[in-house]
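Aim 2 progress update. The chain analyzed this quarter is reproduced below.
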Amino acid sequence: MGIGARLCVAFEGPRRIAAGDLASVAAEVKRALDRGGDAPILIFDEETSEQLEVDFRGTVEDVLARLRPAAASPDEAPRGPGRPRLGVVAREVTLLPRHWEWLGEQPGGASAALRRLVEEARRANADNDRVRKAREAAYRFLSTMGGNLPGFEEANRALFAGDAAKFDREVEAWPADIRDHARKLARASF
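Predicted structure tokens:
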């Protein structure tokens, strides 16, 4: 994922100070750090709510330069004729002998059959997976930013119960920026 593709949000204490692509958020956070202040600054991935670590040493330009992906290694030899690189990753799978036997009998062999099964499962579970990921993202953010706020436990119960009205009531008294971002994240899971 390139520097501009990842969307983020940054909080200085309970106040949202930046949102957008990683480069613009990092630049704004660097300026906030340079101004000084007592509140901690946290950067979250907008989709997953995972905290992002950025090296803020040096100037804004130094910070942004470290965020850019490294150029391809000069020792990488150009590929010759043959199968193109498809992004296939080899990993170990442990199955019972009857499973391997069945897979081996499928058109295209075991790998093709496994790929088809995974794609079918992804399609069949797309809605459940979307809700689960949204809840996980909301929970990560709530745990980090709201863990000491009143109603935190009840808000989490409401989140996992799919009770949007109760969730909204429990976070109502929270600082506005935290409350609004928590609601935005949780909305995708209801």
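The two ends are 28 Å apart (CA to CA). The CA atoms of residues 143 and 152 lie 8 Å apart. These observations will guide the mutagenesis experiments scheduled for the next reporting period.
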